[in-house]
Specification:
This protein is mainly α. The chain is built from six helices and no strands. α4 runs parallel beside α6. It is globular. It starts with a helix and ends with a helix. About 30% of the residues are buried.
């Protein structure tokens, strides 16, 4: 696994402590960092947190990031389930993300 996921999460915490409000792009970056670092539990928590705690509407990009995270972790069934349940049309990109992970 590559990436500096733990460092990205620490930086995210520092940003929040400094009063910065995360945006949808911030969460795409965090989810991507989790995916590339194998931080499945953390990524799943952030995915839930972005809408529940921060009021950000999950986008297809957020879903693709979490699908990538699940695929890289070998959780293909979970990724397939998420694709079938996401509130967006199932796209080739979502399937390519899962299968390419």
């Amino acid at each position: 696994q590559h990436g500096h996921g733990k460092e990205a999460l620490e930086l995210f915490q520092q940003m929040q402590l400094g009063g910065m409000i995360p945006t949808n792009v911030t969460f795409i970056s965090i989810l991507s960092a989790c995916s590339h670092s194998g931080l499945v539990d953390e990524g799943c928590r952030f995915f839930v947190s972005l809408s529940q705690d921060h009021g950000i509407i999950t986008s297809v990009e957020h879903y693709n990031c979490i699908i990538d995270l699940l695929g890289r972790a070998g959780w293909l069934d979970e990724g397939e389930f998420l694709i079938s349940k996401m509130p967006y049309e199932q796209t080739a990109m979502a399937w390519m993300t899962l299968l390419g992970a």
